[in-house]
Amino acid sequence: MDTKQCTLCGLDKPVDGFHWRIKSKEKRHSKCKDCFCAYMKDQRGKHVKRVRAYDNARTGTPKRLEQNRKCYANTIDVRREYERKRYPIRAEALKAQNRKRWAEESDMMRDRSRKYYASDPAKYAARAAASRAERLKRVPDWLTDEQRSEIRDFYVEAKQNGMHVDHIVPLRGKMVSGLHVPWNLQLLTPEENQRKNNSFLTENETN
Length: 207
Description:
By secondary structure, the chain is mainly alpha-helical. Helices cover 61% and strands 9% of the residues. The longest helix has 58 residues, at 62-119. Mean pLDDT is 84; it is low at 203-207.
């Protein structure tokens, strides 16, 4: 087995114990893997700000973003399985961490939410309704972008005129359930919407 001497620890180690430097030319680092990792850790500790700035600059490049997307897509199942096994061990620590963060940053989080809502109430209402409908499995996959835009327009018009967006066929009706689609939406006054509640009125009943 081929060996190589590390320039830091001075030990002879198998060549597999050295990271590649230029793989196409079969050149390896002069430091063994253990020494190299310890050296890099030490350097990062000494130059924290410079290293973080360098990492942040690399993270935002199109090439790195594409690499991250591919890596995430290829390892998503492994990551989920890892988190499922890891969570029970860290559950209490995570809950304590979240409680501490909420206690320290609750005002900032609430203020951020208020600003987000105030910036575009109609968009917020449309997303909230879509989220509720998604949980009820009432948003079909075949909806086009144009149809989703029509749904948002309903909520924009409702906010501008003080109306409520109502599902003609309720998402959770007693006898029948509808879908969160443009042709199942209508604008009602708050009083009309309260009277209708979660019921489905036929044409004869509305007249």
